[in-house]
């Protein structure tokens, strides 16, 4: 099935950049540039630790080996969860979380806390990010690139190549 211009059409159009970021927080967090811009925004809101904690938990899930897990778990705990943490996140149940859990780490040990932070970002800072100058300016510069004569010429060349 092709669209009016002869390009394959699909319900899963390949959105890029800000268009993709605007569809969901998940899409934003899958894009390194999106994470960079979101961090920039959260830094201005004094809540960058939320996305840093979320990213640390994602990385932690991929950790292999008990020793490495213990080290990473301790690092996450000391950085984000302990009462003396340098970048403390605000999660429920934090007061009940003690260093004893660090002795027997498992990939999903921070999942509930990570989900809380994700929801906090999703229902709070993400919607503000989509209205922020950081997002809107990036979106504008993306649109200017897409509409530049070079981009249009390349697109026309590509369509001639594929439509012959």
Automatic annotation (TrEMBL):
<dbReference type="GO" id="GO:0005634">
    <property type="term" value="C:nucleus"/>
</dbReference>
<keyword id="KW-0343">GTPase activation</keyword>
<dbReference type="GO" id="GO:0008277">
    <property type="term" value="P:regulation of G protein-coupled receptor signaling pathway"/>
</dbReference>
<dbReference type="GO" id="GO:0005737">
    <property type="term" value="C:cytoplasm"/>
</dbReference>
<dbReference type="GO" id="GO:0005886">
    <property type="term" value="C:plasma membrane"/>
</dbReference>
<dbReference type="InterPro" id="IPR036305">
    <property type="entry name" value="RGS_sf"/>
</dbReference>
<dbReference type="InterPro" id="IPR044926">
    <property type="entry name" value="RGS_subdomain_2"/>
</dbReference>
<dbReference type="GO" id="GO:0001965">
    <property type="term" value="F:G-protein alpha-subunit binding"/>
</dbReference>
<dbReference type="InterPro" id="IPR024066">
    <property type="entry name" value="RGS_subdom1/3"/>
</dbReference>
<dbReference type="InterPro" id="IPR016137">
    <property type="entry name" value="RGS"/>
</dbReference>
<dbReference type="InterPro" id="IPR037879">
    <property type="entry name" value="RGS10_RGS"/>
</dbReference>
<dbReference type="Pfam" id="PF00615">
    <property type="entry name" value="RGS"/>
</dbReference>
<protein>
    <submittedName>
        <fullName>RGS10 protein</fullName>
    </submittedName>
</protein>
<dbReference type="InterPro" id="IPR046995">
    <property type="entry name" value="RGS10/12/14-like"/>
</dbReference>
<feature type="region of interest" description="Disordered">
    <location>
        <begin position="140"/>
        <end position="164"/>
    </location>
</feature>
<feature type="domain" description="RGS">
    <location>
        <begin position="24"/>
        <end position="135"/>
    </location>
</feature>
<dbReference type="GO" id="GO:0005096">
    <property type="term" value="F:GTPase activator activity"/>
</dbReference>
